[in-house]
Amino acid sequence: MTASNSIYTEQYRPQFHFTPEANWMNDPNGMVYYEGEYHLFYQYYPDSTVWGPMHWGHAISKDLVHWEHMPVAIYPDSLGWIFSGSAVADLKNTSGLGTAENPPLVAIYTYHNDKLAKSGSKTPQSQALAFSTDKGRTWTKYANNPVLESPGIPDFRDPKVFWHNETGKWVMILAVQDRVHLYSSPNLISWAFESEFGKGIGAHGGVWECPDLFPLKVEGSDVSKWVMLVNINPGGPNGGSANQYFTGEFDGKKFTPDETNEKWVDWGRDNYAGVTWSNVPETDGRRLFIGWMSNWDYANVVPTTVWRSATTIPRELSLINQDNSYLLVSKPVKEMEVLRGGTTPVYLASQNISGEKEMALDSITLSQSELIFDFNLEDSSADSLGIVLENNLQEKLVIGYSVSQKQFFVDRRAAGPSEFSKEFAGISKAPYTAGGHLQLRIFVDVASTELFVDGGKLVMTDIVFPSENFTKLSLFAEKGEVKLKSGNITNLNGIWKKK
Length: 499
Ligand code: FRU
Known about the structure:
11-stranded antiparallel sheet; Jelly Rolls; mainly beta; globular
């Protein structure tokens, strides 16, 4: 790694998101909780700031917010590069790779053999294991890798594995071109094909990647549903990479969806390859998610220097029943609140907004802040409303809601340089039917905004590269007035010790 004196202070460096010190990162991998520690692995190329031969980078956190960098966990070898996958705590030592007293952590990843891929082989990808018996500090590859060979389909990757209690087996969900395959295993080593899902179902504008499958209780009921996440690239609702989900039933072998239309985890441009943590204790009970905050449309060319890409903030997923459909809700994890501080929050009293109205920020650093606005739409006449983040160069990011079009939007057309990719500048849009009360909660971190509407019923995550940090915040209402009931602007502390 090329650590420099200015590390974590460079232009565009996120201050409370995870980024590697240096070089290229993409998907989060192998997230597992074990003995008080959250592990985060990630697709990593330690020799360059663009994608290349993949390794698993590694970091550990005790609170999901502050991260300690660890050495590279898994290196490529003669079988291939180390593509995405998952990790589990094999608590019963079913794999025999640890002992009953000291069960192993097992990583299940994809080997991508680039030579085979380039030669046109139909079997460049296979699934393999690595294990750790020292709480994830060091990793040994399983001697008889791979454990699952390709049936002759080139796109055969990104295993997510979990323990299925009812059948007493491990289940693997794997992305296979335009669908997922489900396998089962007693020991993580021998895998049996069970079923497939997805042909002609959901979105198919690109290849399916990085799936996940887990149960979630429907809020306010005793009903539990299974949720399947399937990332897709391209083919997202606003272009490029995105994450879709299905709800349904799963019996350990087969997934049966409630609905076959696509639904999106996040409507922004920059939340890809997100999956959830394994082994979170039942006493905690949360389903914890993190995504890669970029998009393959431009990930390799965004204007950062020392490193490329960040993760999203970690989110808690939940399920609600709305209009006879199950809606996946994403909230920032409550641990994010530990970052509030540094200066007194600004409280905005009830007021009417018409046109554009700048808000006094006192000593808040807007480029590192949490914004919460509660609007009363019943007493409002505006056609659209929202916020503008602006810098001294008049570069502007606009986040708003069109009442008449029932649509949220994030407009980064005038938010700073975008010549690095013609795919970058644009407006992301998301359908949303607001009620009388509308809440916007926004995390701003130098080069990104994450919008959570009404407690996470709609999420939009978008990166942005203003030439200078945003320092000015305005609220706006067009063609009428909007009633702001209250607002809070809170400074967030950074998570890195600057070097
Ligand atoms: C998703 C993905 C995965 C693959 C990895 C390679 O972003 O394309 O399907 O395993 O990235 O880095």
